[in-house]
């Protein structure tokens, strides 16, 4: 037990966006099964609206207590839980946990019609302990804009095709960033694409799909760590893979200030779960 806690502490000290099991970054065009637990910040947001817990959206763990997702994933009429550390949604897996939210904060200026400010934060009921299967992603610097053609990966348990089933195994797909000047062209997304959004894909082959909403656009930083640069927001009503209709993400770098305000004002009881558990384990061990 102590070894696991020491490992969790080493993970925490090592920083964000560095999975124990690195992703295999293939060039498979249409998406593929991810290496198990290679995106350990990916979570499944689930509701019990149908009488049983079912996947509705993705999300990203950004600290021991906070999940980043999309505002359009949140409905006040539903109860939610978050599953962390999952690879297969159907299988019972060691290292996975489920938590209910303590609070959910959708952006106060979220516009349903235009998908503006489509971002939300979920505070977990208690801090999670980082492990091989549960680790936080990095956040980008405020105001950072990804260059055109930057290679990133969308991950999630969304539909495998426009009318296909939801994935059981976590999927990953390579998407290249489409610059705002192109994405906002009348033949692409026109005025629907704002400078607070990131477009990626649009080749008619690879895209996010229903069920991927709220999940991350994972882009590798210069130091090798992974950051969540986008939150899946919307795609074409004509289908998941439409030419010149890339997947549109909320640009996380435009909301760093908003994220920090909510985290700071709601983290009064947050502790370093790793630090305290290690001390507690040492005391118990010495008594024995």
Automatic annotation (TrEMBL):
It is an enzyme of class 3 (hydrolase). Gene3D superfamilies: Trypsin-like serine proteases (2.40.10.10). InterPro entries: Peptidase_S1_Elastase_sf (IPR050850), Peptidase_S1_PA (IPR009003), Peptidase_S1_PA_chymotrypsin (IPR043504), Peptidase_S1A (IPR001314), Trypsin_dom (IPR001254), TRYPSIN_HIS (IPR018114), TRYPSIN_SER (IPR033116). It catalyses: Preferential cleavage: Leu-|-Xaa, Met-|-Xaa and Phe-|-Xaa. Hydrolyzes elastin. Residues 1-19 form the signal peptide. PROSITE patterns: TRYPSIN_DOM, TRYPSIN_HIS, TRYPSIN_SER. It holds the Pfam family Trypsin. SUPFAM superfamilies: Trypsin-like serine proteases (SSF50494). One of its GO terms (molecular function) is serine-type endopeptidase activity. Its EC number is 3.4.21.71. It is found in: Secreted. It comes from the Eukaryota. Keywords: Disulfide bond, Hydrolase, Protease, Secreted, Serine protease, Signal, Zymogen. One of its GO terms (biological process) is proteolysis. This is pancreatic elastase II. One of its GO terms (cellular component) is extracellular space. Residues 28-264 form the Peptidase S1 domain.
């Amino acid at each position: 037990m102590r070894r696991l806690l020491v490992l969790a502490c080493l993970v925490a000290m090592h920083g964000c966006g560095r999975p124990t099991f690195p992703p295999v970054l293939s060039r498979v065009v249409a998406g593929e099964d991810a290496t198990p637990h290679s995106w350990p910040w990916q979570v499944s947001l689930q509701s019990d609206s149908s009488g049983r817990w079912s996947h509705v959206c993705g999300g990203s763990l950004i600290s021991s207590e906070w999940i980043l997702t999309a505002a359009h994933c949140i409905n006040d009429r539903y109860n939610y839980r978050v599953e962390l550390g999952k690879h297969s949604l159907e299988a019972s897996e060691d290292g996975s946990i489920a938590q209910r939210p303590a609070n959910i904060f959708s952006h106060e200026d979220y516009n349903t019609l235009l998908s503006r400010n489509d971002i939300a934060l979920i505070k977990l009921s208690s801090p999670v302990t980082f492990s091989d299967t549960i680790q936080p992603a990095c956040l980008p610097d405020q105001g950072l804009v990804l260059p055109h053609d930057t290679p990133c990966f969308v991950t999630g348990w969304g539909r495998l095709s426009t009318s296909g089933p939801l994935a059981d195994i976590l999927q990953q797909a390579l998407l290249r960033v489409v610059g705002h000047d192109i994405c906002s062209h009348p033949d692409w997304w026109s005025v629907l694409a704002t400078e607070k959004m990131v477009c990626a894909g649009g080749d008619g082959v690879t895209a996010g799909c229903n069920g991927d909403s709220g999940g991350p656009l994972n882009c590798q930083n210069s130091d090798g760590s992974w950051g969540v640069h986008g939150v899946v927001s919307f795609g074409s009503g004509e289908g998941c893979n439409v030419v010149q209709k890339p997947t549109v993400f909320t640009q996380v770098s435009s909301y760093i200030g908003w994220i920090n305000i909510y985290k700071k004002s709601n983290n009064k009881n947050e502790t370093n779960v790793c630090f305290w558990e290690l001390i507690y384990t040492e005391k118990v061990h010495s008594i024995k």
